[in-house]
């Protein structure tokens, strides 16, 4: 997609690994390199060292291979690691806001990495400040960190108010089914509804033994708020973990509290800190789009918002017990000779990079715990019946070799191009050639050319590292603009009608510059085809296009956009066409259920109330 200032930046990548047998910091480094496309402003790795009882951390501004060297990785010892690549959507681009974020609690140090935005961040920040908690960053992740550091009892009133609000919202949505919705509403008429009768997690003081929990949970006191936590276990020695944890509907699972699950074996266990309850407390109060990895002294946790807007997947590493070597696949290997460790990552490409196997996605509203015993799964907040994975993951964000909802991103983008060719065919005549804008648009361009039956060629060569350096261009070089990032392949362009396929137009400045570049290279005509609909509305859920004046497609017709960018013709993929291409690969999939998607930047129908943003 063009110049970086014109990209729809989401951008953050998160990673987590529990593997005492391995150099976890080195594994995290290579995983973050694979996630580099999700953020290039800053990065960081933190490890937990059980021998020292503390966290080691290294963060810096720039790319992963600029920040980390052998000397900076060596001190990062431990049995688990979390890592992050950042593009700022909430908070300034400074080293202060680099992640992971570490906080000292009464129960030891914890570390957090996050992808996404909290729509109630302002309210939650004010609540923390009212309690005298100092805030040193202006990013959402510090809010999450401070909420996890506090005992859930401190948030009892807020949880009760949140439950009332969620109930009222659910009733309003039921009522709206019989009442025409207002066109000016900021919330989609198909917004998620929750069965709040199933919210049954009892939050107790964590130093209370489990017997007291049993008695208190049976009480009908109006001050308690509860939530069912189904549990599923994957032991570390399990030879073939299930591809479909939580396949049983939440309504049919017994309400098992994480407090009773982890506070019943001994006096020491009875005082164990209930991080699951703390995470669920946060999830019940914080609306937004997020996936997080949390590192505590006891375990590594992963969690995903109840709409599933931001991706997070689970992988496994099969390790030979005799020499700690990673085995690419456990198939045919005796189970008693290996041990299985688990991975969390924003995308499956990071799992493959370090020799792991993709298992499945973290479900919306799910909490997973990874420790010496393996992987345990809980529901932290009831998942929405209308999930809303960001459709831009398919259009642009994710790497083409990643899997999402059981389908390869590259194949989805090819289908987007094929559908675009049906809706917006190329011009008639000879010497027509299709090119794509490197890199994310190339699969769509290939699909477009194949469906349209016209030649496909490379027309632009990308200088991939020109903007990934601390050496700034001079004023004279800066004026060259797009020429610094793309060089035209003149012999493939001169004298031809060029159909340039791109994945989206946000601000419009880059595509306009590329059209000029192609004309100067000898293109007779330049026709632009976009493999997504016009971006007409801001995103408040973690994508860097949060104001209407940033969007060239807002309040402009397709013809007006064509005139602005200077193309001979312009064709967008329709919203129905985009969703058809995405959903086509979800049919007859057992591993990942067919889900809903957020496309609010195209339609204006937001899955969350954004009034608090």
Instruction: Kindly state the percentage of residues in helix.
Output: 25-40%
Q: How many DSSP helices? A: 20
Number of strands: 25
Low-confidence stretches: 1-5, 177-235, 237-271
Question: Strand percentage, roughly?
Answer: 15-25%
Alpha-carbon distance between the two ends: 28 Å
Global Rg:
25 Å
- Helix/strand/pairing class, anyone? alpha+beta
Give average pLDDT, whole number.
80
Largest sheet: 8 strands, antiparallel
Dominant shape: globular
Question: How is this structure best described in words?
Answer:
The model is unreliable at 1-5, 177-235 and 237-271 (pLDDT under 50). The protein has 613 residues and is an alpha+beta fold. Strand 23 (525-530), helix 18 (558-565) and strand 24 (569-572) form a beta-alpha-beta unit. It contains 20 helices and 25 strands. It is globular and about 75 Å long. The strands form 6 sheets. Strands 1, 2, 3, 4, 10, 11, 12 and 13 form an 8-stranded antiparallel β-sheet that branches. Helices cover 27% and strands 22% of the residues.
């Amino acid at each position: 997609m063009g110049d970086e200032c014109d990209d729809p930046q989401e951008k953050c990548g998160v990673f987590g690994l529990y593997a005492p047998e391995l150099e976890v910091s080195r594994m995290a480094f290579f995983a973050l390199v694979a996630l580099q496309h999700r953020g290039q402003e800053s990065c960081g790795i933190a490890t937990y060292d059980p021998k020292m009882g503390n966290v080691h951390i290294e963060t810096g501004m720039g790319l992963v291979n600029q920040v980390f060297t052998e000397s900076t990785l060596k001190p990062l010892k431990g049995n688990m690691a979390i890592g992050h690549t950042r593009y700022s959507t909430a908070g300034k681009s400074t080293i202060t806001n680099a992640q992971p974020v570490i906080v000292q609690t009464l129960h030891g140090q914890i570390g957090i990495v996050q992808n996404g935005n909290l729509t109630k961040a302002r309210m939650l920040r004010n609540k923390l400040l009212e309690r005298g908690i100092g805030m040193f960053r202006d990013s959402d992740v510090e809010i999450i960190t401070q909420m996890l550091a506090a005992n859930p009892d401190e948030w009892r009133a807020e949880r009760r108010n949140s439950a009332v609000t969620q109930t009222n919202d659910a009733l309003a949505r039921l009522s709206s089914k019989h009442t025409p919705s207002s066109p000016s509403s900021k919330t989609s008429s198909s917004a998620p509804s929750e069965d709040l009768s199933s919210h049954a997690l009892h939050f107790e003081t964590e130093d209370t033994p489990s017997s007291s929990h049993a008695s208190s949970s049976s009480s009908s006191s109006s001050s308690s708020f509860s939530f069912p936590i189904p549990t599923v276990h994957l032991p570390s020695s399990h030879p073939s973990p299930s591809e479909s944890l939580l396949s049983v509907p939440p309504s049919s699972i017994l309400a098992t509290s994480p407090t009773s699950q982890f506070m019943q074996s001994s006096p020491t266990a009875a005082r164990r800190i209930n991080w699951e309850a703390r995470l669920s407390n946060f999830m019940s109060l914080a609306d937004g789009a997020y996936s997080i990895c949390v590192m505590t002294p006891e375990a590594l946790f992963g969690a995903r918002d109840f709409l599933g807007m931001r991706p997070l997947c689970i992988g496994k590493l099969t390790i030979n017990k005799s020499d700690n070597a990673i085995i690419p696949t456990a198939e045919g290997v005796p189970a008693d000779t290996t041990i299985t460790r688990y991975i969390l990552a924003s995308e499956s490409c990071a799992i493959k990079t370090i020799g792991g196997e993709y298992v499945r996605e973290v479900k919306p509203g799910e909490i997973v715990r990874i420790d010496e015993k393996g992987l345990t799964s809980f529901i932290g907040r009831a998942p929405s019946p209308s999930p809303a994975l960001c459709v831009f993951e398919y259009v642009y964000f994710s790497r083409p070799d990643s899997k999402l909802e059981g389908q390869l991103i590259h194949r989805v983008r090819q289908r987007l191009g094929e559908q675009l060719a049906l809706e917006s065919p190329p011009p008639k005549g000879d010497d027509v050639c299709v090119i794509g804008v490197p890199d994310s648009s190339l699969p769509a361009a290939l699909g477009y050319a194949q469906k349209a039956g016209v030649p496909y060629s490379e027309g632009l060569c990308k200088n991939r590292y020109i903007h990934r350096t601390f050496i700034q261009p001079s004023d004279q070089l800066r004026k060259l603009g797009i020429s610094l990032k793309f060089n035209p392949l003149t012999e493939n362009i001169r004298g031809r009608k060029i159909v340039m396929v791109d994945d989206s137009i946000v601000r419009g400045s880059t595509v306009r510059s590329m059209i000029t570049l192609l004309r100067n290279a000898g293109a007779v005509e330049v026709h632009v085809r976009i493999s997504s609909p016009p971006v007409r509305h801001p995103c408040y859920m973690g994508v860097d296009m949060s104001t209407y004046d940033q969007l060239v497609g807002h309040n402009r017709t397709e013809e007006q956009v064509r005139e602005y960018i200077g193309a001979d013709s312009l064709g967008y993929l329709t919203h129905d066409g985009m969703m058809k291409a995405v959903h086509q690969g979800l049919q007859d999939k057992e591993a990942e259920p067919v889900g809903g998607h957020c496309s609010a930047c195209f339609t204006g129908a937001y899955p969350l109330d954004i009034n608090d943003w």
